[in-house]
Design a protein that fits this description.
With 159 residues, the chain is an alpha+beta fold. Helices cover 31% and strands 36% of the residues. Strands 1-2-3-4-5-7-6 form a 7-stranded mixed β-sheet, with helices on both faces. The protein is globular and about 35 Å long.
Length: 159
């Protein structure tokens, strides 16, 4: 799959696809830690302006067959660098997240890197394991998409 997936710097036009992906209720449930109101386009625009305006963040669009299928990023969090990704639900199960994260890990060579995934997000946990991340701890927090406190795994990549 990786040969058909590319990552590139985010372009303004990509935000339309990111917003459409964010509107999917099932994708929000899986991600859990999402915007309080995924339909709020103003809050979405403000969030992405902050993300893209922060020079400490490295954010890439994930493109497959000339279609923006998601995004992948590295950002500072709690004294470490952390990775995150979102693949639109129509593109789940095609290996795009694994390919995109693998490509990002070739670009970002700092180790260790951290990641987080809700404990029941088995797809994301599989992606992280395929890319070499291992569980190093647990955490919990309020997940807006679920309206409740949820448990998550904290994972690290060392090599």
């Amino acid at each position: 799959m990786s040969s058909e997936v590319q990552i590139r710097p985010v372009q303004a036009v990509d935000l339309r696809a990111f917003f459409a992906h964010q509107l999917d209720p099932e994708a929000n449930w899986m991600a859990a830690f999402t915007a309080p109101d995924p339909t709020d386009s103003t809050a979405f625009a403000q969030h992405w302006a902050r993300v893209l305006g922060n020079t400490e963040n490295l954010v890439r669009a994930v493109v497959a067959q000339d279609t923006v299928v998601g995004n992948v990023s590295v950002f500072p969090y709690d004294g470490m660098l952390e990775v995150s990704y979102w693949i639109g639900r129509p593109y789940w199960g095609r290996g795009y997240a694994t390919a995109a994260l693998s490509e990002l890990l070739r670009e970002v060579t700092v180790r260790p890197l951290r990641a987080r995934a809700v404990k029941d997000n088995l797809g994301s946990l599989r992606v992280l394991a395929k890319c070499g991340f291992v569980v190093c701890g647990e955490d919990s927090g309020y997940a807006a998409a679920r309206g409740a406190e949820v448990g998550e795994y904290v994972l690290e990549l060392h090599a």
